User: Fold these one by one.
Assistant:
Number 1:
Amino acid sequence: MAEKISKTKHEYGSDEIQVLEGLDPVRKRPGMYIGSTDERGLHHLIVEIVDNSVDEALAGYCDTIDVEILRDGSVSVQDNGRGIPTGMHKTEKKSAVEVVLTKLHAGGKFGGGGYKISGGLHGVGLSVVNALAEWLDVEIWQNGKTYKQSYNRGIPQRALAEGASTTKRGTKITFFPDADIFNSTDFNYETIRARLREVAFLNKGLTINCSDARPGRERKDSFCYKGGIVEFVEHLNRNKTLIFPQTIYVSKQNKNNEVEIAFAYNDGYSDNIHSYANNINTEEGGVHVIGFRNALMKVVNDYGKKANLIKESDKLTIDDVLEGITAIISVKLTDPQFEGQTKTKLGNSEMRGEVEKAMTEAFGEFLEEHPKEGKDLINKCVMARNARDAARKARELVQRKGALESTTLPGKLADCRDKENPQMCEIYIVEGESAGGTAKVGRNSMFQAILPLRGKILNVEKVRDNRVLENQEIKNMITAFGCGFKETFDESKLRYGKIISMTDADVDGSHIRILLLTFLYRFMRPLIEHGHVYAATPPLYKVSRGGKDAYYYSDAELEEAIGKNRNGYTVQRYKGLGEMNAEQLWDTTMNPANRTLQQITMEDAFAADEIFTTLMGEKPELRRNFIAEHARDYTENLDI
């Protein structure tokens, strides 16, 4: 029964209406502007500044962006664009720099001619970063002069000052996030690196340098892709066997928009499509993805019939022609309209036709000029259709036997008692029978269910659906979740509001989590898209002193708490969940009041998919390179 909300005896009158001035709304409700105040929101600050520099590149004025985590943990983003305007603003009676940094919805992206195409749509990016920073310094090189200004929590410390002469041009923003706002101010270099590499792929010829100067964490990378999204597709396919060697590139530009598509087919069984609008990852797709899919199916079917490779009655479906495709769809337009749950679904109706037309012309021409590749593709699509039919029959057979019916729950599942409020319930997918047993004892059985896994689940990338359905661990998950999968997926039948992966804090645990995410990403993607999937965060260390225990979740936390001198402390490094008793597991990892859950997003699934391809693929040199590059990350966590 829901708790009653007690009423206050306070009058609600005009005095209760607050007017937040300047940047106060951002500090009052930061989640409205950056999504959250966790690690994701923290890193979004950098994205906001980089997007402004990329807009300068799109306008043709910038070719290099430098992003650095400095020794003190602050971040600087520098470009060689035109620089934020430094003159006095006519109506605000202050420098344009100060207006941009202190006024929401102030910028050059509202039709004034500053930018034709931009990723920052609302003019809030830089001012939001300023509001949520403990301090921020801006340095601009413009008209042969240097200009500087400093801010503390969004408040200017002095007017914009003109400094030394220079031949440089551009803008440099340096800031330190406010610890009063964010759960942590520790930036993750890998998160930054991944986003910057993606931006470089999407902007042909743009050089992006990133580095980390923090002691003991020094790193440097530089990204520049002359081939743009063609190289992006080749990167994603680097561990795949291709059906035909070349990546197909489609490009069409007119006065108001630009369409870029790159795609190739591999011998895998899943599609891997990523779409963007003005460099924004449209995770929920949109009209440009619909146009691509429509054109792809039409061109393949038309060619197959014309070449007498398929009959009129044997029309291939979209699932048949998508199997094994890797594609990047990137559109740029002057006035993008976004919709959907996370505002990352493109809604400009004209882009569907633009993409469809460009794709139909270019891909149709390619197949006509490459008959061998065309025949190989049609044969692959026909095989996909036949396999899909076999998988459907296998699924129907399994369902008739009751193995996937929600009334027949797996024997290993310790279900929760609440059957009336599935949105309030959660299921832990636990690594190993031992940890599963501990979790069953330690849980709150009213709303928490436990499903232990035996070892590593099937690699769904390398088998077709009928083989997947033969795997007992996967069948157990499908049955427990109750919502079906792929074309039978029905979110309304989902039995738990949260699906939580709980694995050991080691390499094997990460591997199992990646396998699980890959399965969910391929078979039940809406669970990730709609925020149902989480990863638990078990502690790495237990520190005991004077009969009291404390838990720490990273090496950095441990060092901050007790430093190098561990005299008088007993430090236990947890090698697995099974080393904790039921009470400890509840207190640290399962109690909603204390635990830390990481919500898995489509970005996380994309990263997991990429790592999975590297570690589980058939090219050992990629595996060696990955291990060599990340060796320090893993050896730091080994119990030596």
Number 2:
Amino acid sequence: MAATRDVLILGGGHNGLVAAFYLAKAGHKPLVLERRALPGGCAVTEEFFPGFRSSTLAHGGTIRLEIAHDMKLAKHGLHMLEPEPRLFAPALDGRALQLYGDPTTSAANILQFSKKDAGKYPHLQKTLARIAALLDRLLTMTPPDIDNPTAGELMHLLMAGREFRSLGRDDMFRVLRWGPMAIADFVAEWFETDLLRAVIAARGIFGTAMGPWSAGSTAAMLLRAPADGNPIGGAAFPRGGMGALTQAMFAAATSAGAEIRTEAEVAQVLVKDGQVTGVALASGEEISAKIVVSNADPRRTFLKLVDPVHLGPDFVVKMQNYRCNGNLAKINLALDSVPPFTALDGDNGNAAALAGRIHIGPEIDYLERAFDACKYGKFSEHPHLEISIPSLSDPSLAPAGKHVMSIYVQFAPYKLRDTWANQRNALGDAVVKTLAAYAPKLPEMILHRQVITPADLEEHYGLTGGHIFHGELALDQLFTMRPLLGWARYRTPIDGLYLCGNGVHPGTGLTGQSGANAAREIIKSIKR
């Protein structure tokens, strides 16, 4: 075995890099082991066609501001682009919603659809911003020990309770009532315009195995509110693609004293007498460590990397039933030009309107039918699409005059009746056909198409079940139950083995909060 390391971190995704930074800053010397040739996990920029670079998987997301500040990401080269409008949502009747960061500007655009909705939209944005302060406290907390909470945990809960009381009667009741609601019911209480309802509802079902009529889908939307209180979310992305974010994180972590090794795939977590002792790499090399932190998803960690003999049978059964089957696919297109959308014909601001996110999904029932398909092992022939054309704001991603289009596709189930090898092209065709209804000239502008299925997410990126959040963001897999009740505090049944990825609280994507929370708890345990 090699010399013992303080801490080993398995996986160089964003949460692993955040955890490595905070551990190094606290005086430890973490070694990050990344199986691929470049760190970044799901936040990478890669060339997928000669001259065309794209955010291969995630094409947007907001790192928590406090984390970005601590890591000095701007100093390490991160430059965020925030186009306006934030979101463009075309309708088949030729109209389109354009929504902005400023609620008054958004309301002015909503007016063409509904005077009532234009008046209520700013109210919703202000309400979510108020509630976001409470939710933010919860997301940065370590879930309490249900049986024996410490004095510190009780204090954090008390402070959260005070924050809750400070909301006032109306907002307190809203939080309690909204969490379990279907997002379709939530938006129906606020708005009458089908397209506006669908745009907001999409934030509650993104990356999940839920449709807008699924109970608890509003909770998924509320979890994202602290990152951006806007009902439609943000539209910020880094210059250079999402890989620029993780490259800045890489630089921050190494500057703090962390070491990162690429092409170092971990084959097994080594355990003796209930205590972690290190890892074995696929190459045969073994590295000993007192603490191992897994940035892999919980199912991969406990059912593949750890020998089940070291875990209790009850724990193993519960982990086998941890829901982790994804329903999201990704398509990247190399385009000869900017596709003209029918809803923008004759508009000189065509490029500006498309620089943020583009929503395809005209109504709640459309989104629900897209979800229905995946329940029966099929991908939707008329999928919900979230699209960005990042080269409009960042020309470095494509040759002069050419463009990159990045598309999230819902719903495309991991468990398909057929195989994804047989259905890959059919999925790509369905997406292009769906989009062509709004941008008829798009098919003739496509120079190349990259289709990434849930099976690819598992095989090439290590996401069990192809789930981008390392597990379903459902009410029974959140907070004190993420990933399992009794094991939501970043520790595991094996002494010295911790989790830091999206499979632990809060698990909401690219904020980096799961990694920061885990690092805080690991540092505390080392001090003890």
Number 3:
Amino acid sequence: MNTLSLEAFTNYLFLSELRRGPEGGLAFLGAKADRKENSYRRDLWVKPEQGEALQLTADGKTRGFLWDGPHTLLFASSRDPEQKKRQEAGEEYTAFYRLDLGGGEAKKAFSVPLSASLEAKLGDGQYLLRVDWDLRFSRAYTMKGTTKAILLQLKKDEEDYQVLDEMPFYFNGQGYVNKHRDALFLYDEARNQLTRITRETFAVNAAHVSPDGTRILFTGQNFTVKRKEKTGIYLYDLASGKTTQLLPPRVYEVYDALWWGEKVLALATDQKRYGMNENVQFYTLDPTSGAMDLLAPYEEAVGSSVGSDCRLGGGKSWMMSGGKFYFTATIRNASQVFCLEETGEIRPVYTQEGSVDCLDVADGTLYFIGMQDMKLQELYAWDEAAQQRTQLTSLNQQVLEDVYVAMPQKLTFENDNTDLDGWVLLPKDFDPQKSYPGILDIHGGPKTVYGEVFYHEMQFWANQGYFVFFCNPRGGDGRGNQFADLKGKYGTIDYDDLMTFTDRVLEAYPQINQARLYVTGGSYGGFMTNWIVGHTDRFRAAATQRSIVNWVGFGFTSDIGEEFARDQMGLGRKGNVWNSMDKLWFHSPLKYLDQCVTPTLIIHSDQDYRCPLSEGYQMYGALQQRGVESRMVIFHGENHELSRSGKPRHRIRRLQEITGWFETHI
């Protein structure tokens, strides 16, 4: 059996954005690494009712799409040569193309003078667009002549400066968002006309067109200086052009609001019990009275939080179909699918191990892109009546043929009267009579989970002769609100769970060389790695990635810093650095690094705005001051998602650095 190479992920096809056509057929995006260009090529694919999946575009420049008819797809693409010309002049520009599935090349349908994406189709030639609106310069499209030239010159003059006068002022993966809002526009193709729906300072979250195409339901909030917690629900009427507030902001954190008959289904939480990580519940909102009624109490996590480094792109986690609401939920260590009936009953639809990454539902059949049976992403259909799953594609089959894939060995253990799940991957060509090194890999979040899905970095290490072990400590997802509640407990019960798990693994697998134990993790996993090296010397070396080391400064520098730090440290609404310094410092790994002796590699990205680069600098500086062997590698142009969606060559270098660090410390 062949060995999985470090670079193998560059041959994986990453699937996303699944959409079923009006008369059948499934369209989706496929992305693949381009090592030469150090980027990813994204193209449009279709799986017809009969036959194999077909790649429809080949230039690698496709973005979001929608079905524009039974046999037509409409999508955005950067292939238009006009785009480069306009952008060099400082203008915004987006081109959209139509592709007839009956044959022929994609043809340019229309373009808009804004940075836009397709949100929904309202009717023939009528579209809802989501626009990245720059409060300073996007209005240039309404101007002509000298007035427009002056504004575009001002935009060019400002390129060397970044003025901050809002919060948040940047966001991970988006860059600086100061003075930017997600806005909604209507576009009439026949008239080539744009109509703005939302106020200029309003920031949109979710949006849905009514079934009859006459109204638009959207969520979000208006702000001029500082974005607040909790959003409102609004209704736009196309005939009158008026917007009505259905639910005021500052009451519920609304994840989504969807049409459900004459009422609105709201996925929301008031966050009163468990704070900002509280799982959403299902409410009905009466558009006439504004009454918000709890339809179905739900303690589980809506959406999928099963981690993997073998995805790129997203898709629908929930949707309405036939008067029923279908949604994914993270249960224990898998993402599964459930159905909410109008009565409030919630029934299981698909409950197998693995992950459902995005879905669509039609005529009693669930279609989904997922990771099942330790395979890479494929497209599946689930017949609920027959309780039968069909794999519709084998797009990633060849890349793993005759390659060792370590099957997770489940290890359930108990700590502090709580049963917890963990797994162990055996090294390639495992011989019970031999000794092997071991790697403890810690997930991010903390409100995520590890599950029985393919994880490239772990599989690579197993192929290199390592035991790899990982678990879901308290604070993670999939076990309800109480299990996930880690407020004010970081580094306490979770650390105890991880160390107990390590003990149980070593007891169950005596082949692991205890003198060659390593630990790594990213984000929250990086925080825990930092905490571990300040509290024990049992690991021979550590690799901390995109981590938090100091809660005192984190609240001022992270894109989610102020609210997240206050909430997760359990400070309450009035807590802050000045009245809670002891609490913040107690939970900061930096406090304990004077006890660290573990050689530590620090991996960080200079555009990581979730756990900013300053956190990595503090970790490195502290270890250097203490004389601890350390090395820091900074990835330019990358953000918090380096290990999952970073540029291909950067992802290769990252994995080389971590693996090399462990191999050096034998």
